[in-house]
Amino acid sequence: MDYQTALNFIQECTKFGIKLGLERIGEILRRMGHPEERFRAIHIAGTNGKGSTAVMYEALLREAGFRVGRFTSPHLSTYRERFVVDGELIGQSELAQLVTELQPVLAAVTADGFGSPTEFEVGTALAMQFFARHKVDLAVIEVGMGGRFDATNIIKPLFSVITHIALDHQQYLGDTLEKIAFEKAGIIKPGIPVVIGRQEPAIERYLMEIAESRRSPYRTASAVQVRRFTPGEAGTAVEYAHPRLGDLRLQLGLIGRHQVDNSLNVLAGLDFLETAGIATSPELLRSSLAKVRWPSRFERIEAVAPQKFYLDGAHNPDGVAALVETLQALYPGERVTLLIGILNNRPLPELAALFAQVAANVVTTTVPDPKSADPEELAELFRGLGIASVAEPDPRRALEQVRGSGSGIVVASGSLYLTGLLRSILLNMGDAIDETFNSGRRSVRERQN
């Protein structure tokens, strides 16, 4: 099987939709010889900040001298981004080989009555085998959606992390913070430590109560005090008061107050790392977190300088509010040109109202997904808020329009699917063959809808 054939096989699994549960992935991994048991792991759930927290942990562990794997989703430019060891994406030939080996296992599991595997279950199985083959010391594994029945919840980690919880994926996880928190808390396993990220007070108490009921030691991000922080175009300077390390000054490579909150997820987990025999120090924290970069999270594309062009995948109210706050802190009093595309299952009026706080003008476009909101309807929402807005359905032409607008600051946002496409265009990157994968995935979704 070659790389394109492997991608075609994976995308065909999207026709089975989302099936939350652990029985099938458990059986798949059992027949593979339980690769997930051959390395230690940190498991990360939450609504926003999972990926940023994951890459911060990854950077710290690599700086400490460990061989580290990372499994995150979704990808931006290539499916291979989901599988990383020591900063290197899985190769095309290796991914094809792993899929070739996995295919008969999946067929046998299906034939034996466990049902057809979903795309995410296939990806999870591939990640576990990839990390085991490369003999990683540790893997940082991000939940796909929810937590309790997410395929990644099959692992038994050193400890878990629950980042900030907000409303998202409500059709699957529930329509209140409490219901969503219940699903996220499903990764808290009896006796296994958990880091509880910054939350609404009631949600923090709820998660603490669950940890206590399962006799899981916990640390809270709120126990680490942030004395002050200063966001800048090159990162965020932060002064903390840590319960054990005392006064601590760090320069984060990521930008914004929300990234300060994400760094607390790491600082609160230091005790659990120490207990696991992983020594850390202020020096390691300083040298590792300053290097962290995470694509499409307020990422400036230097290739289009002097225009300040940012990509940010904010796609729910909590994420967009964080983006707006970051822009207001970096560029007080300034308004920017926005390139916006959003899926139609999002609260469009609420998101438009948030974006409007920093918008001078808006170009709306189509997200490369069949669930894209109509650009003209989006543009009309912004016009209703008094923001000059035009609809350009073609994302490439929309990109050309904002780049030629003369605006000093441009931000593309609303969907990671959109920012992933724009990033590939701007940086001339991403496997061309993955365009076939993405197109195939879209066509499958179109058949479903």
Automatic annotation (TrEMBL):
It holds the Pfam family Mur_ligase_M. Keywords: ATP-binding, Ligase, Magnesium, Metal-binding, Nucleotide-binding. Its EC number is 6.3.2.17. It catalyses: (6S)-5,6,7,8-tetrahydrofolyl-(gamma-L-Glu)(n) + L-glutamate + ATP = (6S)-5,6,7,8-tetrahydrofolyl-(gamma-L-Glu)(n+1) + ADP + phosphate + H(+). Residues 297-411 form the Mur ligase C-terminal domain. GO terms for cellular component: cytoplasm. GO terms for molecular function: ATP binding; dihydrofolate synthase activity; metal ion binding; tetrahydrofolylpolyglutamate synthase activity. Its cofactor is Mg(2+). Residues 44-268 form the Mur ligase central domain. Belongs to the folylpolyglutamate synthase family. This is tetrahydrofolate synthase.
